[in-house]
Amino acid sequence: MLTDYKTLPELKKHFNEKKLPTPSKIFAEVDKTSKAFIAILKDKNHPQREIIKKAMKDGTRAHVAIEKNKAFEKDLLNEAVLNTFHSDFSPIIEETWAKEKGVMSLGSYAGKFDSTGVIEGVPTLWDYKKTNVKKYRSGMKTYFKQLAAYLQAHNEIYDAKVEQVAVLNIFGKKPEEVGSQIILLSSDELIHYTDLFQEDLSSYNELILKS
């Protein structure tokens, strides 16, 4: 077991695992929602393509602002996102153990989480999301499968044990529309999404064997 957190490249070197797929890569091959999303991005004539690309850009900028605790200059939306993070998320995050570190299920898959620590007294692994509109659980299936995979891989290699996962989502297209939501998975939900991820992983492995 590892007592110190490592970046994903460091983990790959440490365990001599260089070609493991990420959950995102697995979903891109077997998950219908992810495959449809990628198809839109590849279609230059699709009417939703530029909207999605803009949302992805805003999401990346939100991650950078939160990580560096500094909004991009003259970006009012980004500033609103960071202010919302401090007002709505900072009070519930009691400890932060690591940010942007790697996880790995040996011989199976690997990835990178946003943060681990303690949320309201419970050891938690969480990801930040920035979306155009408020999300509902029915539309967050891929998020939940990814986090379930991260938690399983985290507890496989790290001495510090995580008990729950969370999505900390900030939504809104304009500064005045920005809001937030905190989604914590129950134990039963976590088992459910872990099982769904394992089904995706099995399907992915079958595809690899056939190729």
Tell me the number of strands. Answer: 5
What are the low-pLDDT stretches, counting only 5+ consecutive residues below 50? none
**Overall pLDDT:** 95
- What kind of sheet is the major sheet? 5 strands, mixed
Number of helices: 7
Ends distance: 34 Å
Order of helices and strands: HHHHHEEEHEEH
Fraction of residues in helices? Answer: 40-55%
Map the helices and strands:
Layout: H1 8-15, H2 23-30, H3 32-42, H4 49-68, H5 76-89, E1 93-105, E2 109-119, E3 122-131, H6 141-157, E4 164-171, E5 179-184, H7 187-210
Parallel strand pairs: 3-4
Antiparallel strand pairs: 1-2, 2-3, 4-5
Helix pairs in contact: 2-3, 2-7, 4-5, 6-7
Describe the structure.
This protein has 211 residues and is α+β, with helices and mostly antiparallel strands. Helices cover 48% and strands 23% of the residues. It is built from seven helices and five strands; from the N terminus they run αααααβββαββα. The chain has helices at residues 8-15, 23-30, 32-42, 49-68, 76-89, 141-157, 187-210; strands at residues 93-105, 109-119, 122-131, 164-171, 179-184. Strands 1-2-3-4-5 form a five-stranded mixed sheet. Strand 1 and strand 2 (109-119) form a beta hairpin. Helix 6 (141-157) crosses helix 7. It is globular. The two termini are 34 Å apart. The mean pLDDT is 95.
